[in-house]
Amino acid sequence: MSSFVRALERGREMESKTVPGPILLLGAPGVGKGTQARELVKIWGIPQISTGDLLRANVARGTSVGKVAKEIMQRGELVPDSLVDEMVALRLQQPDTANGYILDGFPRTLGQADWLDGRVAAKPDSLPVIAVSINVDYNQLLRRICGRRNCPVCQTIYNVYVNPPKQPGICDVEGAALVQRADDTEEVFKERMRAYGALTKPVVDHYRDLGRFAEVDGDRPIGVIAAGIVAAVERLRQ
Ligand code: AMP
Q: Confidence band (pLDDT; 50, 70, 90) for 19?
């Protein structure tokens, strides 16, 4: 049996054994946090909470949060902690988070990490947070970000270089015209990487220092990365 198949099977085994608790997916823009979060949702049956998706939904609905966030996001900068924390707090009140949740793109600052740690510690029945950082090198990320296209209907993610749709610009599943995120340009990518290095790298160090931390190589097939994350979480939960 190939290591790939074994890895996938190991991922599935975890489904019934591990209560995952709160899991944070950390990593630079384009490492595949969203893709991995969706894989882990299938394995563990807990929700994905993506602050980027929540913010984009607020922008699309024209809410007061969306009005503040829109231009900040277009520049590739970070939305103020207070707004993002509040959005996450509301989402964490939903009952589907009882056995755990996958935070994708949060916390991105030490302030957000402190807020989250405090919130989790205040819930006596909650398991502690586990952070997993997905690592991919800079040039690979640039290609992933600038080539990324999404289906606006089913959210399938394509890449014009490495995972193109059968017909250019058209979703294989829905037949809808694919769209590019406004912040998926080289210029904005550079600003997002700068924000990551200055503000989010310290969050990675914070969870590494606490010892509830794992790193996975994000330059591998999707199922293998997911299995690596599941194995790391299982180890850290023992
Ligand atoms: P993402 O989809 O995670 O790449 O996020 C897209 C953009 O949303 C980021 O470049 C930020 O402008 C904003 N954003 C997402 N999550 C956060 C967060 N936790 N804190 C601040 N800004 C965020």
A: confident
- CATH fold, domain 3-47+94-137+195-237, is Rossmann fold (3.40.50)
The per-residue pLDDT for 8 is: 53
173: nearest Cα among 192, 194, 158 = 158
- State how far the Cα of 165 lies from the Cα of 184, in Å rounded to an integer: 18
Q: Which of 182, 41, 27 is nearest to 102 (CA)?
A: 41
Q: Which atom of ligand 1 is nearest to 29's Cα? A: 4
pTM: 0.85
Instruction: Please name which of 148, 152, 154 lies closest in space to residue 178, comparing C-alpha atoms.
Output: 152
Question: Can you give the residue ranges of every domain in the chain?
Answer: 3-47+94-137+195-237, 148-183
The CA 113 to ligand 1 mean position distance, Å, reads 14
**Cis amide leading into 95 (omega within 30):** no
Amino acid 162: pLDDT: 84
Give mean pLDDT, residues 52-66: 95
